[in-house]
Amino acid sequence: MTTLRIAGGRVLHPDFSVREGDVLVDDESGEILAVGDVADGDATLDAHGCLVMPGLVNAHCHAAMTLLRGYADDKPLESWLREDVWPVEAELTDTDIRAGTELALVELVKAGTTAFADMYFSMPEVAEAVAESGLRARLGHGVVGVGKDEEAARADHEESLDFAREYDGYADGRVRTIYTPHSLTTVDESLLREYVPKAREAGVPLHYHANETRDEVDPIVEERDERPLEYADDLGMVEEDDFVAHGVHSDAREVELLAERGTAVVHCPASNMKLASGAAPIPSYREAGVTVALGTDGAASNNDLDLFDEMRDAAMLGKHAAGDASAVPAEAVVEMATAGGADALGLDAGRIEAGRRADLAVVDFEAAHLTPTHDAVSNLAYATRGSDVRHTICDGEVVMCDREVLTLDEDAVRERAAEHAADLVARAE
Ligand SMILES: N[C@@H](CCSC[C@H]1O[C@@H](n2cnc3c(=O)[nH]cnc32)[C@H](O)[C@@H]1O)C(=O)O
Ligand SMILES: [Zn+2]
């Protein structure tokens, strides 16, 4: 066993108290060994003037969409997807997706994110990029039926299941998988009835977009006379390890259903504001006991992957929508970005305590915009930026030290992604 001592900082504890202390990590098993007054480690990582917090969890993302950052803005979901995003995505190659995913990984690491959930395609490339980066992920091949005949749609489901079966546990267990039908309106009922049970048999959890926009909810309600998540439940898609993205337009019955089943919701406030999708009922979810996580969604609807921004957006949108400044307080958003995300993704992380995975972000608090520190949790929610993260540790390994990414070559990744993005857009036009 070799140990790493993250020394001299203050530590954010699971009860949100902040105390001076060290964190001792076993960098072979990737576990937190001790917190507080700890004996010397084999190596030391300096955290003076810093806050040591759980690594952030981005629970809903389409990582390679970094290639489309700033390509199509200022439109609602339906036309944004159909007119702009899907035509370009049809041109994406494996190497484009690899380049875009690596760009996302650099961005995630640099903003203290240690785990994310991704729904996209060319997922073996994504899994390899994740392996290389040192991060942790829940990965799924997104299934879309729109514009496909039965055979092609079926092949998409098969690909999603094959990937999920084959890659679960990849990269020393840092990669886990999910079965990811895109949404309840873009995938056929008959194929869901056939494939959801197969995912259950394989023990793979589900992740999909649900109740994101009114345009998506209304046709289901009209056609079936039931709420979208009731329809999903009828298909067996609302189970304990599952997590749904957005949940903007859920009604009281659906909130109750998610709470009963133990299905988590991933709140994506920036994407919801940008596409004008609406404001998710976060206070209702939390009161009902639903696990709420945070996600950026893809970089084309955000337009970055900084979860500190997302925390602030979640707090601001929550208050604005409720007309109540006490709604969605600082502690709630920090919890959503850490423990909530870890719980949604089924990771033994998101809290700094002995025995948990050593997924950590060390945030430099010696900055003008973080001074003074009356309340460290308030600073995290309202004033910190991803660029304040000094070190990122995942599974006990230092993946960024003093802002230098150790696992990926940042400049090369950035150049490659810019080239792939330019070529992609040129091909699509
Ligand atoms: N196998 C599918 C790919 C689906 S990946 C997941 C899809 O979700 C899309 N997406 C990104 N953001 C959102 C969102 O906010 N709502 C719904 N879909 C989104 C994304 O562009 C991508 O097309 C195919 O052959 O088309
Ligand atoms: Zn999405």
From TrEMBL:
SUPFAM superfamilies: Composite domain of metallo-dependent hydrolases (SSF51338), Metallo-dependent hydrolases (SSF51556)
Cofactor dependency: Zn(2+)
InterPro entries tied to this protein: Amidohydro-rel, Deaminase_MtaD/DadD, Metal-dep_hydrolase_composite, Metal_Hydrolase, MTA/SAH_deaminase
Top-level taxon: Archaea
Binding positions for Zn(2+) per the UniProt entry: H60, H62, H209, D297
Keywords tagged on the record: Hydrolase, Metal-binding, Zinc
Keyword Zinc: yes
Family: Belongs to the metallo-dependent hydrolases superfamily. MTA/SAH deaminase family.
Function of the protein: Catalyzes the deamination of 5-methylthioadenosine and S-adenosyl-L-homocysteine into 5-methylthioinosine and S-inosyl-L-homocysteine, respectively. Is also able to deaminate adenosine.
Protein name (database record): 5-methylthioadenosine/S-adenosylhomocysteine deaminase
Organism: Halarchaeum salinum
Protein encoded by which gene: mtaD
